[in-house]
TrEMBL record:
Keyword presence, Signal: yes
Superkingdom classification of source: Bacteria
Gene3D superfamilies per record: 2.60.40.3860
InterPro entries listed in its UniProt record: DUF5626
Keyword terms: Signal
Name used for this protein in its record: DUF5626 domain-containing protein
Domain DUF5626 positions: 45-157
Signal peptide: 1-27
Organism: Sellimonas caecigallum
């Protein structure tokens, strides 16, 4: 291997290691995260952001913002958005009542590079909703999106 390739690979490895460490430290600072899912307590009234990694090691961020909330903690509307840097940003509104998803609305999916087709927002059950779409870049087509679920008084968001 020539010197330029070795230098490039060294810099690339250091960048990946730094990015992973940075994302991990941000995840610890966020409300509660696992490797690929954000957990937002419905008892809070503040916006929260999470920095996560998907199953392929690709970083992404989730933001959950209360739009309206009722006198009971688990009632309200929440704007959920997920961004995959340099690829796409998507989101929707989840309406919650008595720890159940009662409706989903306002789907959006914006390509940052490439294109997006077949955007479908669905309330799957009283505890789960999905926003699914096809993300197309170069000659690659990926079925992806966002999954929202409610469990034990928390709204959980993950990348499909």
């Amino acid at each position: 291997m020539n010197l330029k390739k070795k230098l490039f690979l060294s810099v690339l490895s250091a960048s990946v290691a730094f990015s992973s460490a940075t994302l991990s430290s941000h995840a610890k600072d966020s409300y509660s995260t696992s490797a690929s899912c954000s957990v937002y307590s419905l008892s809070t009234t503040q916006s929260k952001s999470f920095f996560l990694m998907d199953k392929n090691g690709l970083p992404y961020s989730v933001t959950i913002e209360p739009i309206e909330y009722g006198s009971r903690m688990a009632n309200g509307k929440y704007k959920v958005s997920l961004t995959v840097p340099n690829r796409w940003k998507a989101g929707f509104i989840v309406t919650v009542s008595s720890n159940r998803i009662t409706s989903v609305s306002n789907p959006s999916a914006i390509p940052l590079t490439g294109s997006i087709k077949n955007v479908v927002l669905q309330k799957v059950s009283s505890t789960q909703a999905t926003l699914k779409f096809k993300y197309i870049y170069s000659s690659n087509v990926m079925n992806t999106g966002i999954k929202a679920s409610i469990s034990k008084g928390a709204l959980k968001i993950s990348k499909l």
